[in-house]
Amino acid sequence: MVQEKGTISIHTENIFPIIKKFLYSDHEIFLRELVSNAVDATQKMRRLAALGKYNAELGDTTIQVSVDEAAKTITISDRGIGMTAEEVKKYINQIAFSGATEFMEQFKEARDANEIIGRFGLGFYSAFMVADKVEIQTLSYQEGAEPARWVCDGSTEFELTEGSRTERGTDIVLYLNTDNEEFLDRSRLQQILDKYAKFMPVPIQFGTRNSTEEDGTDEEGEPKYKTVEVPNIINNTNPIWTKAPTELSDEDYLNFYRELYPLSDDPLFWIHLNVDYPFNLTGVLYFPKLKNDFEVQRNKIKLFSRQVFITDEVKDIVPEFLMLLHGVIDSPDIPLNVSRSFLQADSNVKKINSYITRKVADKLLELFRKDRKAFEEKWNDIGLFVKYGALSDDKFWEKGKDFVLLNNTKSEYYTLDEYNAKVKDFQTDKDGRLVYLYTNDAERQDSYIQAANKRDYDVLLMNSPIDTHFTQHLESKLEKTSFKRVDADILDKLIVKENAQQHQLSDDEKSKVKDIFQKAIANEHMQVEVEALSDAELPVTITMEEWMRRMKDMARLGGGGMQFYGSLPDSYKVAVNGNHKLISRILSAPEEEGTRLARQAFDLALLSQGMLKGADLTAFVERSVNLI
Predict the structure, then answer these.
(1) 14: number of Cβ within 10 Å
(2) In angstroms, rounded to a whole number, what is the distance separating the alpha carbons of residues 113 and 483?
(3) pLDDT-derived band of residue 611, with 50, 70 and 90 as boundaries?
(4) Residue 415, CA distances (Å) to 190, 212, 240, 366 in order
(5) CB 319, CB 357: distance < 8 Å
(6) Which CATH superfamily groups domain 4-206?
(7) Which residues contact 304 (CB under 8 A, 6 or more apart)?
(8) What CATH number belongs to 240-374?
(9) Is residue 96 very low, low, confident or very high in pLDDT (cuts 50, 70, 90)?
(10) Which of 81, 147, 348, 609 could pair with 279 as two cysteines, CB 3.0-4.6 Å apart?
(11) 0.90 cut: is pTM over it?
């Protein structure tokens, strides 16, 4: 073979500084790129053999990754198709690149290394992010081929000479620069391989590891064990998403989930994705058991392209509301070096997004119809997904409204139609509007719930993080229906009926009662109103108006434009039951005694809401002791 020297055909001498500058933040992906190239070469070799175009023995096609700390090298070796010298010149020396000026102009603000690599086909050249010199030793599978050696020191100059490889395939040898000697650390390389290559379709070996195996028995017949050195194969070449669902058991799905998320509880159920038209997609999505703070659960879906890990930031591929799911998605229609701009613009990605939404909705509807009781038992975990989906995706809502459940304080579950039928005869107000009462804290609001139940009103439990938004969504979708928290006002004003209670007090007496309570409470944020209620109702009830409470709840959740309401002081309504016998006693008592009784009744109302604290609580206890 004739020795050859030349210049890499890129029309500029600035390519390597540019690569190092723009790709530095993601420099670990060099290993993904080079191992992926080795996988491609190996799969091509297997296909040629399967087609009868290679008749010799394939032999062991395991890809080898090795490190030499003394020489400061990393080597990736495969037994794939290899290259001839001419192929090296064609595929390595000619970068699909039109000039540094255009590159710098277009990507001067770039932050995404994947975008740069994918756009210009620089996968192999990502090696120069970490290496001062790269050497290729390769031998083509073609009969009579000669080995070739290519060396480049990070400039545009290369050297192509006869190689030393005796078996088909390719070695890529990286001579690491001083800034990247962290990659000589075996644990660091293992970490990168585990991240990107854990499910690549060709076995990848990274050195050896110790394993324990049986070594006969001892004198008592108990098995003995010895430590042996075995190949450290880092990947599972046939993960479950590459198999048909009929080949898999529930235990297979659970074991794979435990492999992905070893510290998580077992999932509730899963969905196996498998579609080949109008795009290619496989994967398994799991419904995890959620904690109430669902923000920390995101970024648990892993995106692959032909079993090569790409990213766990899948916002544009997976609908927003399903970001809470766990699992894997694999699509060859998504390039390995994918960029955010690609995901946002690609038509296949949009189709995948819609497909996943439909598939999840169909699965939930199937579960609901197949086993209603089991579905109800899972509702506390899956309800958050369903409500989030209903809020954020109209297509999901159209399917989801058939299996959205409302659960009440008696742990009963109803579909939207079922609940409408349950309460319409009792909870329709004088204007024909249906009122759904709810609580977000059944223990704290128990007195209000009990009062509602005495009137045959039903109270829903709405205590998930997004129920404030979900109630508003339902109000917009359900005809003439409103949601009111059970402590948002007195019951007669939450559901206004034609036959309202009549006052037993005169106007002068109502005015006097209001003055007494205002003096006893002495708080400008507590607005006293004297109401006509049943004498069986509490003497004093403290409420916050529904609209104000919602605004404050949304402000706490970070709702856009709601910060103003979050900064306002809490303002409450104090409803004094003018028909209660205690009010007559207060009116007839001496002024000081009446004020003391009014304060006691007010403090009891605060106590029932968990709002009586500090010095006010101490004063209440002392006053109660004196009254005994």
Answers:
(1) 16
(2) 49
(3) confident
(4) 50, 55, 35, 15
(5) yes
(6) Histidine kinase-like ATPase, C-terminal domain (3.30.565.10)
(7) 199, 310, 328, 329, 330, 331
(8) 3.30.230.80
(9) very low
(10) 348
(11) no
